[in-house]
Amino acid sequence: MMAPHDRPSGAPIAGFEFRVLGPLEVLVDGALRPMGSSQVRALLTCLLLEPNQIVSMDRLIDTIWEHDPPASARTIIQGYVSRLRKLFGEGDPGGTEIVTRPPGYLLRVDAERIDAHRARALINRAHGLEPAERSRVLAEALTLWRGPVLADISSSRLYGMVAPNLDELRLLALEERIDADLDLGRHHQLLLELSTLVDRHPLRERLTGQLMLASYRAGHRAEAQARYHELRRRLSDELGLDPGPDLRELYEQVLRDDPALRSSPRRPEPALGIKRPIPAELPPAPAGFVGRRRELGELDRLLAEREQGSSRLAVLTGIAGVGKSALALTWAHRVEHEFPDGQLYASLRGYHSEREPLSPGEALTSMLKALGVAADAIPVELDDRAALYRSLLAKRRVLVLLDNARDSEQVRPLLPGSAESLVLVTSRRRLDGLVVRSGAKVLPLETLPTESAIELLDRAGVPGKSASEPVAAAELAALCGGLPLALRIAAARLAANPARGVSDLVHELTDERNRLHALDIDDDADTSVRRAFDISYRSLHPVHAETFRLLGLVPGHTFTADAVAALCDTDPASALRRLRALALAHLVVEPEPDRFGMHDLLRVYARDLLAESDDCGALPRLLNHYLVTADHARRFLRPTRDELNFTDGTRPPEIHDRAQALDWFDAEWPNLVAAVRAANARGMHELAWQLARLQFNYLMVRCPWEDWIRVYTDGLDSARAVDDPTGKVLMSAGLGVAHSRSGRLDEALGHYDESYRVAVANDDASRRAMTQINMASVLFRLQRYDEAKAHCQDALRVYRSLGDSYFEAGALNNLAMVEQVNGEREEALAHLREAEALYRAADDLDTLAMVLNNCGEVCIELGRLDEGESYHHEALDVALKCGSAMRQASAYLGLGDAARCRGDLVVTRTRWETALAIFEAEGSPRAAEVRERLDALA
């Protein structure tokens, strides 16, 4: 891709081009592409303004609808995203795309394709150029504005957030270009343009100053003075202000004919389209900090060497828990006044137990935003981000604190280019690469000497306690190895129980001397953290200690008292008391009421402890809890359709109806996915496939396709591992449903065929008939009608012979679909009405809504519009009651069909558009059918 200054601004771009500096336009290979409704355009604009950044669903909803979003806002946005994805897929294969990234979406695009980004890039590039080239580049940037920004976006909130910034960017670029022209001596040519601009923006001091300067240089001294007095009167009358110091100084220079006015003025800072904030990102300094006088003195000396041009980079290094971050933050807060342009902070996660280290690109993005750069102005390439970062920090005095770095390569792109700023890095490694290439000063931190360790115990624990037991305090400091983290935990134990003496804690720790010594001799930094956790763990009551160990078995990231009760084989009230005790000891957290979590390192530590104890029955108990609760909850959603039964008389008290069942599944879903995966990985295969099956009713309602396929794939793997025929049939069939409902018919048919072959091999007539119904639905959509009809008729005979009325209804419904397409509509309607009665008796609302929609569709084809509309209205009511978005969409589609037959095209379009938004949001292949109808309607 050519650089912005290498390609004329009006030259077409191959593939997609996005224009927001005027009415929103999308061009493909230079041809304008229609974008549809204003809300679709508003959604795309939100993503374009923050390219390659995640925009949350909540922010999209709030931006598009402000304070009154519809109940189906999320579904509608999902539908709009599907439309945009289709557009991008057609015009730019492998390029521009919208990616789902919790909690929202990310537009992956070369930002050079967005005119606002190109404009900012040109404006930024102009800084530092010679006047003639600067004027040319800025003029090119200004040509990208095509009129009022986003004039066609109806969302007043979006317009109000975006347009002023982009308008301000244009004015800044214009002022910069005028400055360049003044440097070139073009004051005569500028007089008319500046007069017009000042009339349009009468309170903009910089434009007035430029007009004054141009007038003075053109020999119109009186006009220059008059413009100043006119602005002064306006400011006084309208705002009660006087002109700023820069303009007052210019006026005084005009009065005294200052010779400096005849030469080029000092060029101002680049116009980046932002008001530079002063970041203050330092986290709070730790309480009770002690010691480190030598290290603090070294940092002070480094600060004092600023004017000597020496290195402005220091690295604090040492083992985990030695207090690197505490020292860095304490010193940073002490000297923050020395950095009037702000303080930047980034946690680089170099040694996080489960999360990946923060990449330099991510860190630069965060810091650029803190420096006031709009998200859509952040360059895509790492080198460009680093260059912009260095430009913003040039000649500025900023303190940059980079915490927990992994290596030199992670840090190097984050270093400013000038010696005005100072960078302080903490790391478990020495980062010698920064010493060699960047002249870093390394300050290795040792453990605290006894005197400082006792002082820390006193400050962090009970003041004065160490003085009452000085020998025991010295022994405690030695047992903690002078490690600040271990000392703080020990002090917390003393503070939690003021009656406990220091010698009591010393006696407890002495029993662990061998293990502490073993941990100390390992050079890995994690051992020090583990040693500190060991001190905390050994101070727990035995019951709480057992609970803590068992929490290491939890597959997910959160847990409730009910789950922990099963894990620990106790009752929920006792489990809750245990969790609250662990929370007081800071070994678990309670991020929301009655839902707990554990720090990642503590989780690893708990798992390590489990290797030394016999808790083999805990995980099966937890999985059984999920089985029992999921089985109970699923029965509120749909009939079970299988023989699995884990309720064993237990009814979780918090689940009494459908809404509570959905709430439980929603809250526990990540844990359920992790539980199936853990059961599969640990060889608990019967539990794995059964737990996967118990999610089916929830999956049918919420349709999380990726999780659905992941869970059922694990379930099928487990069913195959134990050669369980029921498990293999149900897991294969479930995968078939997932692929079928998401439009992957060939994959669905393959899974259905596998489930059919297993049922036949095991002479299971009922399961064989079920798989035939499933196969018929896919064969029907593949237009293999004869095969579909044969399977339906076979299944119908089997279920009638078995007296299974519920599955008989499914066979009747699918048979009716084939009859309908074959023109046998009366026969189809009769079979559908039989199925309707059977589903009503079974109280299967989801499937009943489907059959009602099918009845409505056939009635409309028979010309019975009133009857058809009645069926679709009832289907919509039932679908709303059970929460099935797919059935709602089908009902809206059918109601639109009825309106079309009556000739009411306005109602038709409204209903079909609603159906389209839902189908697209659900990933249904029926969206294409609705789009075709809307296109034909237009």
Automatic annotation (TrEMBL):
Keyword flag DNA-binding: yes
Gene3D superfamilies documented for this protein: P-loop containing nucleotide triphosphate hydrolases, Tetratricopeptide repeat domain, Winged helix-like DNA-binding domain superfamily/Winged helix DNA-binding domain
Any one GO MF annotation of this record: ADP binding
Species the sequence originates in: Saccharopolyspora kobensis
Pfam families documented for this protein: AAA_16 (PF13191), BTAD (PF03704), TPR_12 (PF13424), Trans_reg_C (PF00486)
Protein name, entry field: DNA-binding transcriptional activator of the SARP family
Region named Disordered: 258-278
Domain OmpR/PhoB-type, first and last residues per copy: 8-109
GO BP term, example: regulation of DNA-templated transcription
DNA-binding region boundaries: 8-109
